[in-house]
């Protein structure tokens, strides 16, 4: 498996030497400054690729191997194949990337909001901080700050009472921070920052899009895109919903095993793959991650590896250390490593330590939420250690069998 690092570019405060020192060889990056729906140009891609891959003589080479992400526009999510202009722009970006030998593309199909958290610095038992999704704070935002139309229908009486109590206990500063956390588009997201009025307006545009319609629109998009991807040798990796359930009354269609099976059955092209995100899928207690990895093994081209700890009734959670929490990371890695051994050197699974705790010196710095250096460094080291042991065990077994 190839070890990667999410890099937001030269202005993000993380040097490429820091990536080298972490032990990663592959870069996961994107052109976040290009507006959603606009095609990436060859010159823009070449500039980023040159920055990453023009290695000084005394430094370890890095390769830009994964794009995360080319955003999917709202028009495609709402209209599917009818959004011809936006699909054409997406294909043009893919073609330009392939021409520069960048052939793994991550994307998601979450409407209005991308990955969602209510807290960016939840204090864990170690004193490090992590990102957290608190159901009561989310409901307080939905019901009392956003005041979404008919939102009360999505909550039980107990939920509504807890949300009101949570909201009434919040200071103005806490309310503004919650708005920022949910509506501002967190780093790496593929949705636009929204004011509260714009948030309500955007939700209204999805009034007639249910889960079936959203899935049909994704399939229509893939039917247009995968033939070109097949010709180019590109692999598309659909990221799971995060959290993997409906938010704001919006449909979610990449949350469990059945969701992915339906998408792969509808579009069987080898280009139609998944980004196996253990942190997103692991939030649901009914998702058996090792079993999912074994079932969809041939479709996994890219993986985000992290863990979460469910709290209360399971709707709240925080991001645990990579080998802790509710994800059986060793069992999951065993399934991924077994698949990876079957592949040639050019098609290995690329993975990155996803997110990380804010810890040690990073606690005193301004860091990108979810992407502090030290926490991700710890995570990558832990994952690398497990993989090393699994590989050594397989080698011993092979020798014993021989």
UniProtKB/TrEMBL annotation:
InterPro entries xrefs: Man_deHydtase, Xyl_isomerase-like_sf
GO biological process: D-glucuronate catabolic process
Catalytic activity: D-mannonate = 2-dehydro-3-deoxy-D-gluconate + H2O
An MF annotation (GO) of this entry: manganese ion binding
Cofactor entry: Fe(2+); Mn(2+)
Keywords: Iron, Lyase, Manganese
Any Pfam family the entry gives: UxuA
Top EC group: lyase
Pathway: Carbohydrate metabolism; pentose and glucuronate interconversion
Lineage: superkingdom: Bacteria
Coiled-coil portions: none
EC numbers: 4.2.1.8
Family (UniProt): Belongs to the mannonate dehydratase family.
Task of the protein: Catalyzes the dehydration of D-mannonate.
Annotated protein name in UniProt: Mannonate dehydratase
Annotated organism of origin: Pseudochrobactrum asaccharolyticum
Gene name in the database record: uxuA
